[in-house]
Amino acid sequence: MNTSSRLYSFKHEIGLRFIKLINLLCMVAAFGVAWFMYYQYMIRSPFYFWGDVAIVVIFAVLYFYFCKTYDAFVISHYRIFDIIASQSLALLFSNGIMYAITVLLCKHFPNPFPLLLCFVDQVSISIIWSCIAHWTYFKWFPALKTIIVYDRRRGMQDLIEEYGLAKKFDVKKTASVEECLNDLSMIDDMEVVFLSGIHSHDRNFILKYCLYEKKQVYVIPRIGDVIMSSAMQVHLFHLPMMRVQRYRPRPGYLFLKRVFDIVASLIGLIVLSPVFLITAIAIKATDKGPVFYKQARLTKNGKRFMIHKFRSMRVDAEKDGVARLSSGDNDDRITPVGRFIRKCRIDELPQLIDILSGNLSVVGPRPERPEIAEEYMKEIPEFQLRLQAKAGLTGYAQVYGKYNTTPYDKLQMDLMYIAHPSFAEDIRICFATFKILFTSESTEGVAKGQTTAISNNTSSISQKEDK
Hints:
Radius of gyration: 25 Å
Strand content: 5-15%
Mean pLDDT: 84
Structural class: alpha/beta
Number of helices: 16
């Protein structure tokens, strides 16, 4: 790596750390003021000074964790509004947990107003910081010269524009994999290379060249790559070897996961019982039809079960017997009450019953309808691999994808989750799920008229890639 590249990388790392540190210090200072000026006097047995410092440190750790969960520090890849929203959610959870801790220490409910005022101050700081940090970052670090190399998956440049990343990646060239292989020198004066849906043989050739030339590379993986990410290093015959097997989580993980499912679903059913009652009355009063909607879905090893939802569509929504995905707000089958409960995700709440019964987990691949899964598997045979784990109410694909994300991309996300089972990751996904409750993108429907197979465009990137 030449001197200028090393200097840029060093400045980039130090600059980002400095910007994040300023944010963390400001938020901690705001909480510290609220604690030292009010809440420290409310606890039954006041701490020594270092005890109060420990409380502030706990807030700092919580805030940092939630910011990492919601990508609230990634100013180089997200819009200002997204950063503010993520930090506000992180602050909401952090302050909420700290108030709960304060209640335990005080043995009564102290006045929440100082903490609410602190939260307002923190959000104001977040707005100011996000605007300044965003402007400063792109002033310090101009857009990187970028080339996009594609195979069957095109449109990466449009995505860069759509997600506001033109300030980060200045796309100078786009080339097919054949063009790139015929003239690798087109990469030489680039700083970033996107490899989009390229077959492993060709991709690895280009990838190694990029590494030789010290280029930053973003790779959109293929299913085989995701499967290999779960491989375990083994030592046999004095040879480098990787062992790949089906989803086999440790018993301890499965035990914790089931305990969490039971506790979470029970608490959810109790706390949300008023919402259940109001929703049931609203649905019944609208068209006199049934409150709940039951539908066959697939879970681990292809087992069928009946999932429960609040009915959001007309009773005759599929009177012709054809399974159809929703086309979003434009779907005329959705009732007025259904439109609201879908937007607020209330229609999903009865699935807490399915979690308690053991058919669903809180976190896992989303359960698909047998008819739709069958159509997907005609185009993508690997789609059945997501049935290695128990289906979930939320999951990696639900958090990082959208309703209309292609089945191929959702499959890859589900396989990423299955490849590395972790209770800590399950908890992180649970918290990350709260963010999508406030984003309309996650409920966008598919184009009206599309059915099970999403026509022949199930994935624009080589569904038959690994055959």
